[in-house]
């Protein structure tokens, strides 16, 4: 089943759980990265679970007007924003994901860098954070991002450029240099 396209898997998923599992394995890493950037690493697992439960429940309503991955990313963003609306303002920091390397010092450095990057992403305006996360973490092209966020491609490019510049400045204020 791994050779099948998303469209083929969607058709099979109504009657075969294995088809849905392939869709889940195929898209979960990018959805997790997106959720981590929006709600923080500590809540990303919950969001991913919520997204795939919702997708499984509503898969038969997917009309195919857009690519499945585009629809999935929109569902993920909606789940992230629903979680953020429920949170208290002081509860925005999630528990960081464990990092596994052979060196405790390296683990600590990686953890600090992830926390700092997560903090910096949360400082961006909503539209920039969304566009940067979809581009850098989900690897989507500008046209797909434009479709997801409902903006023109040029607007998406501007948001990404402004977001990257703001991230660079924020990270420099925290002592993170390019290439770190």
Question: What is the helix fraction of residues, given as a range?
Answer: over 70%
Output the CATH topology of the largest domain: Rna Polymerase Sigma Factor, Chain: A
Spatial gap, N to C terminus: 39 Å
Rg, please? 17 Å
Question: What would you say the CATH architecture of the largest domain is?
Answer: Orthogonal Bundle
Shape assignment:
globular
Let me know the CATH homologous superfamily of the largest domain.
RNA polymerase sigma factor, region 2, helix turn helix motif
- Portion of residues in beta strands equals under 5%
Q: How many strand segments? A: 0
- Major sheet size, sense and barrel closure: none
Mean of all residue-level pLDDT scores: 83
How many helix segments?
A: 8
Q: How many domains in all?
A: 2
Helix and strand string, N-terminal first? Answer: HHHHHHHH
Can you offer a commentary on this structure?
It is globular, with a radius of gyration of 17 Å. The chain contains eight helices and no strands. 72% of the residues lie in helices and 0% in strands. Mean pLDDT is 83; it is low at 89-102. It has two domains: 1-93, Rna Polymerase Sigma Factor, Chain: A (Orthogonal Bundle); 103-180, Arc Repressor Mutant, subunit A. With 180 residues, the chain is an all-alpha fold. The protein has helices at residues 6-13, 17-39, 41-58, 68-86, 104-123, 126-137, 142-149, 153-173. This is RNA polymerase sigma factor RpoE. Keywords: DNA-binding, Sigma factor, Transcription, Transcription regulation. One of its GO terms (molecular function) is DNA binding. InterPro entries: RNA_pol_sigma-70-like (IPR039425), RNA_pol_sigma-70_dom (IPR014284), RNA_pol_sigma70_r2 (IPR007627), RNA_pol_sigma70_r4_t2 (IPR013249), RNA_pol_sigma_r2 (IPR013325), RNA_pol_sigma_r3/r4-like (IPR013324), WH-like_DNA-bd_sf (IPR036388). Residues 120-167 form the RNA polymerase sigma factor 70 region 4 type domain.
